[in-house]
Write a structure and sequence with these properties.
Helices cover about 75% and strands about 0% of the residues. By secondary structure, it is mostly helical. It folds into two domains: about 90 residues, no CATH class; about 220 residues, Orthogonal Bundle (MetI-like fold), CATH 1.10.3720. The protein is globular.
Length: about 325
């Protein structure tokens, strides 16, 4: 088990290094520091002196990968590649182009994102699994047919419709919860109810239909027929056998999403005015704060790789045969 985890972790290191190199090329070679300065200052009437000052204030005036003006080891360490790219591996995100501490901003904004993402994730999975098992239980009946039709309809509707419709109906017409905003402590609950509810409803169609496909595939296997031949009830077969043996594909979709919960939802947080990491990234893009965008890209990649490792570990728990591979 331990060797399996170590091996999977070692596989992830080259991937993270590759992502870091690609990020460096995109932000400092394709889009040079001079380009960043001009976009930040405004393309018109930008003097070379203003560009140089902007770069010096943010440490973008150094050499890319080799500083010929420095001495000794600093020829390699006093470069943009080390200061702005390699230091990301230590999760030292530095300061934004506006001068704010990025690590502090992330530590503050992660909680609103988690307050919305975790309930959507947990309740959404339980809801989708329950509906999928019900539809699979009544397979080839009117309940199954209409369940699939409703799922397709829900999948076909844009997520923006759920957001705008929910804000209008629940927030503006019924006045049950605020349309947007956020607060700390227990007061945050009234601001998170609507986005959580919309997030769950918006994912029912795709989630239920996917889980239904998994369960129907498992139901057709020999071990299910054997369980029925032994006299087990249909509910026992579904919950104790089909559900457990269908956990591998379910875990693939569920565990990989876990790190992405930390990053927040770009659309949901923007529409509901939630000060999470999703809106943090959108604001950075709108203000052309490349330091924040670069940090969020790297953090998202690192968390996604962590999700892949967690997925591999969860496989060994759900199916012990994988430990021998």
């Amino acid at each position: 088990m331990l060797n399996y985890i170590i091996r999977r972790t070692l596989y992830a290191i080259p991937i993270l290094i590759g992502v870091n190199l690609i990020t460096f090329l995109l932000f400092f070679v394709v889009n040079t520091p001079d380009d960043m300065a001009r976009m930040h200052l405004g393309m018109k009437r930008v003097t070379p002196e203003a560009v140089q000052q902007w770069k010096e204030e943010r440490g973008y005036d150094k050499a890319m990968v080799f500083n010929s003006e420095a001495q000794g080891v600093e020829r390699f360490t006093d470069t943009i590649f080390i200061k702005k790219s390699i230091e990301l591996f230590t999760f030292d995100f530095g300061r934004s182009d506006a001068g704010r501490d990025i690590s502090y901003d992330i530590s503050q904004r992660m909680w609103p994102s988690l307050a919305i993402a975790i309930p959507i994730f947990v309740i959404g999975i339980l809801t989708n699994l329950t509906f999928a098992l019900i539809v699979a239980f009544f397979r080839a009946t009117y309940i199954d047919v209409w369940g699939v039709i409703i799922c397709v309809v829900l999948m076909s509707v844009s997520g923006l419709f759920y957001i705008i419709g929910g804000q209008y109906l629940i927030g503006k017409v019924l006045h049950l919860v605020p349309i947007s905003g956020y607060d700390v402590g227990a007061n945050a609950i009234k601001f998170t109810i609507l986005p959580v509810l919309i997030g769950i409803i918006g994912g029912i169609g795709a989630g239920t239909r996917w889980y239904r496909t998994i369960f129907l595939e498992e139901i057709s296997k020999d071990y299910v027929r054997t369980a029925r031949a032994k006299g087990l009830s249909e509910a026992t077969v579904l919950y104790k056998h089909v559900l457990r043996n269908g956990m591998i594909p379910i875990l693939t979709g569920a565990v990989v999403v876990l790190p992405l919960l930390f990053m927040g939802s770009l659309i949901t947080e923007s529409f509901f005015g939630i000060p999470g990491l999703g809106s943090y990234t959108i604001d950075a893009i709108n203000s052309q704060d490349f330091a924040i965008v670069r940090a969020m890209v790297f953090l998202g990649s690192a968390l996604y790789i962590v999700g892949l490792i967690l997925t591999d570990i969860s496989y060994t728990i759900a199916d012990p045969r994988i430990r021998l591979q």
